[in-house]
Amino acid sequence: MKTKTAAPLFIPAAFCALISTMALFIGDSAKPAFFAFLPMCFFFAATPLIAMDKRPTDLEEKLKQANQESS
To answer: How many Å apart are CA 54 and CA 48, to the nearest integer?
Structure first.
């Protein structure tokens, strides 16, 4: 059985921290990149959460099928 790690949950946070740091220290020249890549932060954060939400649903369906086959 393959064990899933929590690393995909921290990748969006690191990406957001990187572009925020760029905008903070580089100044006005980094503001367009910050605002352009900001929607990607939300997308990157939502992708693993959607996958985590889908997994229990799949397991519940498999459990129902197994119960129906055994009875």
So the answer is: 10
